[in-house]
Amino acid sequence: MPLRRIFAITSILFLAVLAVSPLKNALRPYRGFQRAFARLGAARAKSLQAAKTYQQQPVAIRQIWLPDFENRVDRCTTCHLGVQDASMAGAPEPFRLHPATYHTPKDSGRFGCTACHGGQGLATLEKDAHGDVADAESPMVPLKFIESGCGRCHSSEQVAGAATLSLGRATLERNGCYACHTVKGHEAFRSEAPPIEAVSLKTGAEALRRWLKDPKAVDANATMPRFQLSPSEVEELSNYVFSLTPGRTLADRVQAAAAEPTGDVAKGKALFAESRCISCHTLEGKGNGSAPELSKVASRASAGWLLAFIRDPHAFNSRTRMPQFNFSADDARHVVAYMESEFKDFDAPKEILDPLHVNQTLAEKGKVLFRQKGCFACHAPGVEVDRFGPALDGIGDKRAASLDFGKRTDIARTLPAWLEAKIKAPGSFQDGLKMPTFALSPKEAQAAVTALLSLGARPVPQPYRSAPTVRASLLPGGAVGALMDKYRCLSCHQIGDRGGDISTAPLTAEGSKVKRDWLVNYLVLSFTIRPILTDRMPVFRMSKDEAAQLAQAFETFYLDPRIPEDPYAGQPATSRDPVEGKRLYDTLGCRACHILGAGGGYYGPPLTEAGTRLKPGWTYAWLKGPQKWRADVRCPNYGLADADALRLTSYLDTLVKSSTASKAKRGGTR
Amino acid sequence: MKSRFQILGPVLLLLAAGACSRHKAAAPAAPAAAAVPATPTAEAPVAEAPLSYELRLGRGVYQHHCQTCHGETGAGDGFNAFNVDPHPRDLSEPAFQKAKTDADLKDAIQRGGLGVGLSAMMPPYGKTLSPEQVDQVVEYLRTLKRIDG
User: Fold this and answer.
1) How far is A2 from chain B (nearest CA, A)?
2) What fold does the segment set A196-372 form as a domain?
3) Cα-Cα-Cα-Cα dihedral of A93, A99, A104, A109, to 10°?
4) Which of A72, A488, A620, A668 would disulfide-bridge A323, Cβ 3.0–4.6 Å?
């Protein structure tokens, strides 16, 4: 009897244990989701057949397996059943159709889900999959930083279609993050900050104190961050800066310039406008903003320094982006006279530019601070740059548990929240941290966090990597190279994979694009090509010789093999038909954006003298697909046939500057 | 003893069935509950909250290609509008919005003014924008409809 009883109880227990597994499976929430999806699909289906297909879907785990992408297994589609289902647009989550992006829906099978969204691909419970559990290995990326996923594969600075990521990468570069932090691909970064020895030539004690306290309060365009300095630390650093001896030649130049007679304010004002200083600088906030605000500059820099600097900026700071303008000795005086008369901070004390009487004890303390605070990383980088900040490679995959949240108990304990707080207020984590405050706008902060999250711990597999397709920058040496350096072409223009973004015209294919005679004239006296643009080519007062030398070099170096020298070669003679080309010009509506003669829109470059400026090969190549040459260009691709593109080209090539008009103009100017 | 087994069998079955049915009852409620925190708008910046992801993409295309002539609000008052003859269409006009179907708008964007028998000043974008982008911009155009009165 007892034996039978034991047998009975064990049998029941055994049955119960056996029942656990199917029971657990039957209780899985995804089954409920799949049944709900079948009902929703059937309700939304347009035909009985389609409704039936939804209902007949077996309830089972779905997954995307990517053996060649880190062996990812993404089971997200087990619950997110509608991500690729067009009829699920606007459906409630988790069934909603994935928004159309560059890679969805067509590439879902190639990338899976977790590559961009993060999360635990293998999990089938919402909490586990989304990484809401404490210290998940890979929690989901908040949607406002989702473009960090793009950056895992796309390593270029500018990623088309990922505006936030691109802004973020630009923000990291502009704010000099790479001066202190190592990031692969940015080892060669050097800050443009001026060498510290020459600062005492430029500014006064009070101006320097104000600057050290908060650079952005002095100049909204400042890239120098705010260091949390106490008044005594400001004093020590000021003493250190004024204790340094600037180079003899520079000191002499500033002194000599200060002794020169003042120029003519009115002439200076005209020169200032003509030289297009605000293509880089701002004046009361108006202008490009990639160089200092000038409206109060005369209260930050002495007249002697301004004059000597404008004459030869590169002697003062070899890393500055400012080009050298060929002002005559008088012209430069006029410009500085104008700046001295208008660009003052009239509320500032009169002695703002007075030098400091150095106290050696304080200066010694300042020297230590200069090292301690890391000022040297930007202001005196040697050959071997000492990047003392933690390396940022792989920061996008850091576990939240390994982060020091310090005093910040108010934020979520996740990596994105930590990064955002860190970038907004580094000092709030702990006292005495070295990282300064950058005063980024909320948009910039979001973008910078996106860019940081894109720095993964391991590189994605080779087939997934998208390296920039731009050509390597080809920079000539010798006399031409020196000229391009003197005028700092790369500060605004892009050549291959290098250069600034102020100009919308990359020079990579300039030799294939514009006619040489036009280029020479343009370099001597540059004028507005597109009236809508506010950042315009400065007038450098280049000599005709220099201009000819540069134009010759452009025609030799900066060619693109895709642009034909003679587009008509091998084409029927009928395609060279300007009359038919004009008809095309009128019917295609080019006039909506381009000025030609008396009428036309204000958006694209005027075409009145298109034939003087552009080579026919370029015009043809452009017409065949403008986006090929500049991805973000507004000019639509009309899908023109070869013959039509050639006809239009031949018409535009006939539009040249009339000789009488040009003679009159040449007589009128210098 | 036998009878005990006979009773226990159905009891087990009943328990299992009960568990299943309880689960069934709970399931439909789950997706609705999950929908609330997972919507993309919850994560988006406050200013952009009313626009869905597709609409934001559509707005991007509109601002890039259309706004120059058709204006920020679609009223046909972009800064280039007055250089264009005939002037660009007021896209925010309710009567216009009502008269044109999505397919009409898509067609006009893809084939241009000339393609649909109107002014050539409206260029065709079929070769510049992908069909998805055109759909997105059409969707965005619908949000520009002016509310009169």
Assistant:
1) 12
2) Cytochrome Bc1 Complex; Chain D, domain 2 (1.10.760)
3) 0
4) A488
Does the A166-189+388-460 domain belong in CATH 2.60.40.420?
Answer: yes
Residue ranges of A 441-470 with Cβ closer than 8 A to chain B: 442, 446
The answer to whether residues A276 and A537 touch, using CB atoms and an 8 Å cutoff, is yes
Is it the case that residue A134 has pLDDT exceeding 80?
no
Q: Does B34 touch chain A (CB under 8 A)?
A: yes
**CB contacts, 8 Å: A634 with chain B:** 64-65, 68
Confidence grade of residue A657 (pLDDT, cut at 50, 70, 90): confident
* Exposed / middle / buried, residue A402 (Cβ in 10 Å: 0-12, 13-18, 19+): exposed
Contacts of A163 in chain B (CB under 8 A): 60
CA-only gyration radius of chain A, Å: 32
A592 with B4: Cβ contact below 8 A: no
Burial class (CB in 10 A: 0-12, 13-18, 19+), A534: exposed
Chain A contacts in chain B segment 113-142 (CB below 8 A)? 113-114, 119-128, 132, 135-136
d(C-alpha A50, C-alpha A52), whole Å: 5
Mean pLDDT over each residue of chain A, to the nearest integer: 89
Looking at the complex, does the CB of residue B148 fall below 8 Å from at least one CB of chain A? Answer: no
- In this complex, is the C-beta atom of A592 within 8 Å of any C-beta atom belonging to chain B? yes
The strand pair at A599-600 and A595-596 is best described as: antiparallel
Into how many domains does chain B fold? 2
Which residues in B lie closer than 8 A to residue A29 (C-beta atoms)?
Answer: 27, 30
Give A135's pLDDT tier (boundaries 50, 70, 90): low
Label residue A666 by pLDDT band (50, 70, 90). very low
CATH of A573-668, one of 3.40.50.300, 3.30.1360.70, 1.10.760.10, 3.90.180.10: 1.10.760.10
- φ/ψ of A349, rounded to 5, equals -65, 155
Q: Is the pLDDT of residue B47 over 50?
A: no
A354-365 average pLDDT score: 93
pLDDT of residue A431: 84
pLDDT digits (tens, 9 = 90+) for A495-511: 887 888 888 888 989 99
Angle at A351 between CA A345 and CA A352, to 5 degrees: 50
Q: What is the reported pLDDT for A268?
A: 95
Say which CATH superfamily domain A478-557 falls into: Cytochrome c-like domain (1.10.760.10)
Residues 362-401 of A with CB under 8 A from B: none
User: Which residue stretches of A514-658 are H helix?
Assistant: 516-524, 544-557, 578-588, 610-613, 616-623, 626-629, 642-653
- Run of H or E including B105: helix B102-115
User: Is B134 domain-assigned?
Assistant: yes
- Rounded Cα distance between A212 and A232, Å, is 12
Chain B interface mutation, best of A11, A444, A593, highest count of B Cβ atoms under 10 Å: A593
